[in-house]
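User: Last request for today: this protein with D-malate, please.
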Amino acid sequence: MTDSTTRYRHKGLNLAYQAEGAGSVLLLIHGFPLNRTMWGRLGGFDGYLTVAPDLRGMGESEAPVANYSMAAYADDLLALLDVLGADRAVVCGLSMGGYIAFEVLRRAPERVAGLILMDTKAAADDELGRQGRNAMAERVRHDGPAAVVAAMLPKLLDPEVAKVRPDLVDLVRRMMEGTPVAGLIGALEAMRDRPDSMALLGAVSVPTLVVVGAGDQLTPPAEARRMADGISGAELEVILGAGHLPPLERPSRTRAAMVRFLAQV
Ligand code: MLT
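Assistant: Here's the final one, the structure of the complex with D-malate:
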């Protein structure tokens, strides 16, 4: 995608996105603690207006001190669809972006024309997971983004990719380091408190593609398979040579899977 920022206001916040192409909207929701540039290697999609927002608290969007939840993120994105004059969109979310895609589906199913769930999961955090979020938020309060970089960076990319593509490691590190503390803590608390979406799977009635990196250490292929099995007619695409971030690690394989899917939506 070309890199030009557009802005809109919602609930008093100044929020950023970029859009490219023309046609039906393909909404790309990034993961934690990244920003819209994680989609930059995919390129545009014929027949689609590809829209990549920066979630509140990340990228170039404003970071309020409070008011982070899956509902708030989803609301920001539904407002963005209103700004674009789009009744419906194909909603694609990676990891935390997937949690938000589920929330968009819960709040406004009529606005979802198709779903792409990448390296994400439907289950909520268990008690141990919630404690982990609190511990990480505490570390971020003391050490800033460096705490998240230390914990997550080694797990995001496939080790083989990380070895030969230091530029990608740097790009991911810069995204993380550039995330304000308020945005990091807000997102950690929003993920900790997110509702379980397992019960939603059986009700998904739109075309769905589940994508996962074969080497994803955070949301492994078994998790993706479980999610795809729960959604009637869902396709599963395992991207070889990728970890948690296939659009960055293997953009052409990821793009090919998306193009095939989008042709059927
Ligand atoms: C992400 O990549 O968005 C996060 O790792 C998701 C999570 O921590 O649950």
